[in-house]
Amino acid sequence: MDGEEGVFYRRLPKVELHAHLNGSVSYQTIEKLSKQKPHLNIEQNMTAIGKGQRRTLDECFQVFKVIHQLVDAEEDILMVAKDVITEFSADGVKYLELRSTPREEKNTGKELNILIGLTKRRYIETVLSAIQQCKNEELDIDVRFLVAIDRRNGTEVAMETVKLAEEFMLSSDGLVVGLDLSGDPTVGHGRDLLPALQRAKNSGLKLSLHLSEVPSQLDETDLLLNLPPDRIGHGTFLHPEVGGSKSLVDKVLKNHIPLELCLTSNVKGQTVPCYSKHHFKYWYQVGHPCVICTDDKGVFCTDLSQEYQLAASTFGLSRESVWNLSQQAIDCIFAEDSVKQQLRQKWAVLKPQVLK
Ligand SMILES: CNc1ncnc2c1ncn2[C@@H]1O[C@H](COP(=O)(O)O)[C@@H](O)[C@H]1O
Ligand SMILES: [Zn+2]
User: What is the pTM of this model?
Assistant: First the structure.
């Protein structure tokens, strides 16, 4: 992205609400990790989907497995999180909600012959300390964290994750604001996760759920929309034109549930046939809150500036409309109202400089 056009999108202050930590790892960070772990024999084409390339969603999930192999120790998670936050900040993101699935890895420490265990609690603490370190470096970005549930892992892990998230919501000074439900949408059923999600909601955690990312999840989507969630990830197959239904759309509209929309991710993962057919069009036209996001900027080789530019060029948005889109994202953040006020203030100061 070059030229005057590119400069506008980079300078545009932005809010990123849908970014999976390990999917956001840049090429540069992957290089550093691969050098440290040459025995894994990991090459760049195994961790990223380049320009013009496509994969099935299933193949995308294989990519995450490779990245998880590379990012398996506390110091890796710390570095990855700091790098990702720094990169979002360099791209003009002023407020970021990162999400990640806490993992526990039991590696054998050969020299010591003991188990070096990374616990889920330690995983979350490590991400939070990366956020804190970036704060201390005075990067101009406010970062919050959503604890993620991988749907593949079933009922018990979901409940355990919610309990951890509740603890951190109370002890992290406002950094942990909510819960994400993600993972391979073709595995498992939301009904098994409902008690955990309900509990999370009751305890004050905000919910962002991947819903209808693939077709034929109508029952699950209907069930989970009754919670209702605070935001929806993707929602690709909600509307009737693509096999969804009017009643699903009505539930989303009635509850004003914002959608997190990730153009490149959906096109490269082949759940959407091409940019012009992206469901952004449907929801934007009815005036429903849509937030442009990256999903996995590392894996899909994109950044948030590029996603805004893509939305604008595909759907013919003026710069004024692009500005409004980025500003309206502030209404959808999970942090408290005082943070929204600060961000609105920031946008007001920057507007005459950026939108000349
Ligand atoms: C492409 N569409 C998607 N749909 C569903 N879940 C996705 C996803 N992209 C990423 N994830 C989820 O995020 C994890 C990687 O980051 P973390 O290890 O949690 O930081 C993946 O393993 C998957 O569970
Ligand atoms: Zn996602």
Answer: 0.97
